[in-house]
Amino acid sequence: MKAEKGEPARGPEQSERLRPVFPSAPGDDIWGGGERDTKTLDVVLDHATTCLGGLGAMVHRHDGAAGRLRLVAAGGLARERAAVWADLLDQQDVAPALAVRRRAFVSVAGDSLGVGASGTAAVPLPGADGPAGVLSVLTAEPGEPDETQRSLLRALAGWAGSRLGGGTGTSPASGPEAGAGRSRSVRMGELTAALAEAVTSRDVVRAVAEFVLAPFGADGLIFQVLEGDRLTVVGAAGYPQEYLGMVDGITLGAHAPIQDAVRTRTPLFIESRAEIAGRYPTLRRLNDASPKEAWAFLPMMASGRVIGLCVVSFSEPRSFSDDERSLLTALSGLVGQSLERARLYDMEHARARELQRGLLPRTLPRLPAARAAARYLPAGRGEEVGGDWYDLIPLSADRVAMVIGDVMGHGITEAATMGRLRTAVRTLADLEMPPDELFSRLDDLVSDLGEDFYATCLYAVFDPVARTCSYSLAGHPPPVVVQPDGTVHSPDVDPDPPLGAGRPPFETHQLHLPDGSFLVLCTDGLVESATRDTDEGLAQLRQVVSRATADTTCFEATDEDDDVRCLEELCDKIVSALLPDHDQTNDDAGLLVVHIRCTPARDVASCILPEDPRSAGQARDYIRRQLSAWGLDDLTLTTELLASELVGNVVRHSKGPVRLRLLRSRSLICEVYDGSLTTPRIRHASHTDEGGRGLQLVAALSRRWGARYLSDGKCIWTEQDLPPSYAAENPEATGVPVPPPLPGE
What we know:
Layout: H1 12-18, H2 35-51, E1 56-63, E2 68-75, H3 79-82, E3 87-89, H4 95-102, E4 106-109, E5 119-125, E6 133-139, H5 147-163, H6 176-197, H7 201-211, H8 213-216, E7 220-227, E8 230-237, H9 241-247, E9 250-251, H10 256-264, E10 268-270, H11 273-279, H12 284-289, E11 294-302, E12 305-314, H13 322-359, E13 370-377, E14 387-394, E15 400-407, H14 412-430, H15 435-449, E16 455-463, E17 468-474, E18 480-482, E19 488-489, E20 509-512, E21 518-522, H16 524-527, H17 534-550, H18 560-578, E22 589-596, E23 604-609, H19 615-630, H20 636-653, E24 658-664, E25 667-674, H21 694-701, E26 704-710, E27 713-721, H22 724-729, H23 731-734
Antiparallel strand pairs: 1-2, 1-6, 2-3, 4-5, 5-6, 7-8, 7-12, 8-9, 10-11, 11-12, 13-22, 14-15, 15-16, 16-17, 17-20, 18-19, 18-21, 21-22, 23-24, 24-25, 25-27, 26-27
């Protein structure tokens, strides 16, 4: 099955490795707390193994009444291997039992399970009346774990004991200091769990600020990543921006405490401003600018190298106990691994976002029949890029295609699929396919990608002369229509299944659109959320659009720049109203707002021609009269040649009825309609051929030409650029901006 949106995929090996493998007792939950216990054990097993570089880890539950340790979860071990330690006696001389009896950390050399381990390290999970259980790690390196690793194991065990209901601890020590130490251990365990879920560098910084500063009485935090010999600030808390600007990009040589900590790979604890001034007198400027009085400079390690520095700071001078130093040292290693993983994700995510942005249109064209604005909003909490896209595609005769779609799922694969679909739509649209036929071809493409791929889509074609919009829906929200009188509605139609899930034929729907209407197209991420379904979201979208268009002058905008500016403002209002907490969303959202313009009747001229050789001459006469009326006499000769060739081809090779249509827009469009479905094509004519050069002439005289097919025939069309003099004299008719005169003109 394919992962749902926003859900990271886990491979079968990882999933099996983290799954608890033995129940605590027949008919019981893993520990008695259900799903929460399972998650706690997953985090403990994973981090204990990772932080000690171990081969696997185990958690036993202590049954004091029976004098036994029962294995409840294991990671990294085959079931038959872990079964050897499934049921232990308290008095056995193995690491888990020794740790319970001694109520302390224990390390025993040897490969008890025959998995190639060098030893076993174990630490008890604290309980109210004694050890509630024990956490064990099969180590891969010879020798005992160092103090940093021990501190981390104790922190994990303390957190797990509190989460699993074991109580607050088993140490005989009591009093405020012991209680504070246990509290810090629990908070370190909570930090471990938070870092396990942290995805981005920002998540890592937030987790450390939440779970470290308060338990240690700290109020300042800086994360700096080592890039060459410079340290770049990637996150901070409790510092003014001016000071962060001073230390961002600082070289190692310019900050001696940092250089010492990085060079020796050893945490550096400075207990007062006087101490740092005495040890590093050259740092007077930085020391005077810093609002802090004590510091812990913690080098962050990952893959055996220093990747940066974590600075925990205090507003008052203070001394650091051995326990605090051990926990902060353990913190540096733990955070270093999490930050390195998060930075890799950040880089991969940035590349994925860049890929996705590159697949979306950089700008939307300003067409005679449509001006548009759009928004793409990646998921605020999603961990992968999505597959939402939109496009505005110019077609022949000033028609325009509008498309918006959503590839189901998140990830690089979905973004790449989105790019393929967008390219396919543009290619099929250029073939002048109607929406239902285009969807049939697109459905074949999605189906060929695999049975796990689906996409929703809305494809619409607006004809500014007929003032109609033909569209098809494949599992997608319908368009919202805003008419010039302020009426807002959505067509009540049933969409076809998503692409890849249904089978042709797809249905085509029709809309009549008055001049100046708006079309609002969106993906489900804009209207659907955890608190509202799609219908409720569409109703809210209609309300927002109604209020927004009533408060603007978009309907009256005639200047192209003003029109686009109004559309941009409308997009912002829609997004802010429907996604006020965008950072909390887990789905991408796409929005396309189009302001349509119909072709004035004065810019359209057509006539019916007879189906005989005289029709070419009649076409030339009609063209001369019409172009003269439009003031386009400079194009008369060329247009006559084009029309003569196209009409002559109909008479010789096709069938009637024959119709000629001229459109005056940003170009002059000449169309010839007939009742045949034969495809015209340019062919290479030899020296002895008497024909075959007509379409070569058409291609040479026009800016572009093509054919589109209708239900009862076809249309061959050509486009010619308007003369510069006409464009300068009629900017309101052509939509072509006129440059200001040069000085002296």
